[in-house]
Queue: 3 jobs
Job 1
Amino acid sequence: MGEMIKVTMPKWGLSMVKGTVNDWVVDEGDEVEKGQELVEIETDKIANVLESPGEGVLYRIVAQPGEVLPVSALLGVITQGEVDEAELESYIAEAQAAAAAAAADEAPDPLTINRRLDWEGLTIRYLDSEEGERPLICLHGFGGDKNNWQFNLAALAPNRRVLAPDFPSHGDSTVSAEHSSPLAYAKMVSAMIDQLELGQVDLVGHSMGGLVALLVARESPAKVGALTLLAPAGIGTEINAGYVDGFATANSRNELKALAVQLFADKEMVSRQMVADLLKYKRLDGVEGALVQLAGTLHSGGKQSEDLSSVAQSVPTKIFWGKADEILAVSNCAQLSGVDVEQLECGHMAHMEAADVVNKHLT
């Protein structure tokens, strides 16, 4: 009998335990290639399309649209060569039993534990794999949180220690307008390095988190080994001020969805749950005022308030930037010299839309 390849429910994010099969984009019996889009999956955080793990014939679709299944559950079988139906049925039964056993035995991932750090009278929440060398701290963008790294942390943790904090007024950390500025966030990161005795770290920063990473490198150069910047603020002058100000004050589902789709080249990545989570966050007491203040530190007169290109040129720095970025234009990096800039086929969220490329570099 020919080779059989399992198509299984992916694990997109540290907290993902199940996903919903929305729709198959290929039919049973179709020839498929490795990397070809197979099936639309929606989680409680994001909607995305699962790509084929191999080439052959999608011989059997096991999971039907609407089914909610755990991570690693069998969705379908790709075959190469002749098929023996009895062996196929046995293969499917064994795969389903193994997935069910794995789901029952799965131990809590340390990266799902919401850890606590005290800083300036605030509670800072963060994720930490705790194990490994060369610590990497992941810094989210304006209005984001530690869960924005859902496609990255689990992939990186086997190779190095990874941490992801929520900045003040974001995620599960204390809301504080007084502590809501890029410079304050840089001081928080520096204190985190000291309190956890991390020594020298690498930083990866997305958007505003990129600006914070640059500020940490400027203020505490001995603490930073290398920077990886993803569509960073703090480089160049162009910024979509309408998005920044709009997000700070948005308080309805429709407003937030219209803003969220600007983050992605693939607009289908914006799920209902993503918008619901943003709305829940925006309605927390004090968040709007803190974000309005923070927005005022990021731009003035429609331009970015600070250009730290010189810092990027003085520290080992790699920049990834989406060609379709609608928030911070890729043209911002035009004036950089001596910095490795890689343009990707994605929007503002390179660590989500081009996770494989970013993870490979960070590993």
Note: The mean pLDDT is 92.
Job 2
Amino acid sequence: MTEDKARAEILETGNPKIKSARITIQAAPSSVFSILNNPKRHKEIDGSATITANISGPDELTLGSKFGMKMHLVIDYRILNIVVEYKKDELIAWRHLGRWRWRYELVDLGNGSTQVTETFDGSYAPAIAQIWLNFRKAYPWTQIAVAKTLVRLKGVAEAK
């Protein structure tokens, strides 16, 4: 399936601060995870079109790893992320100063394919960050970005 025909399934989380989507990728979990845990590859899969460059970090993330990105959302800025959840080939999540998280869960479907669920979780953000997220109308926009990221991830992972 080509990237332009792929669709991610939007998931109803029951929490307006948590936006999630899921997709099946025709690649092993280790292949998919190797893209997610390499911050130098995040621009390739960024469905929000906000990452402009990787500026720091290891080639392979683990729990506690820090990585920096150049970003653009109305203005240019830099952000430092830290990996807060990690289980090799199954789970990775990171956050930045605003404390909201991007989380990827991988499930081996046993047939050479992987189900990937991406979740943007704003529930960790403190009150001041919640004001910012609501002002920017981040939640509806992020729902679309999460789904687009998964479609891009599928295209990159299946191109190997």
Note: The mean pLDDT is 93.
Job 3
Amino acid sequence: MRLFVISRHGESTLNIEKRVNGDPSVPVVLTERGRTEAKLLGQQIAHIPLDLCIHSRFSRTRETAAIALEGRNVPFEEEPLLDDIYVGELEGRTLDDYREWKSAHTRADRFPGGESLDEAARRYARAYHKLLERSEERMLVLTHEIPLRYAINAADGSDDVDGPTHNLANATPYMFDEAALSRAVEQIEHLTN
């Protein structure tokens, strides 16, 4: 059975500051708690043989992966399609600013100078589709809260990629077999086209 272990990164400094970041060139490190969470993730997946670790371009996903897989011979690969939402002019602003903008707009509206939530969701569907096309049997995928939340809700058949599952814990592994990830791709595409 093919297995996709998908996790959000460990707690970062911007999580503490409650600021948004959609630009992978902005360096954001894990907090001490985030590094502890990454170690715990490593313990939780220690007995799962992994062929590959895929992470977004953001340093916090790469750092989480490096800590979780320390001492293991697992190759890493970067996948830009798994990047956090590009929020354009909201870069570095507070989570409250982000939520205020989001509540006044539709999912199809682009963040000023950025992408829309629907565009990001379709990008995540493409990323998951690419994972399904790969030959590796067991992959660890380190990404962000929103792409993971969308995958969980879509795989569960929700009519809203944003819920009912919301506010996922950092560095917590979620298991998808091939059928579940395929359902996620189909449902994300269905809901955002």
Note: The longest strand covers residues 3-8.
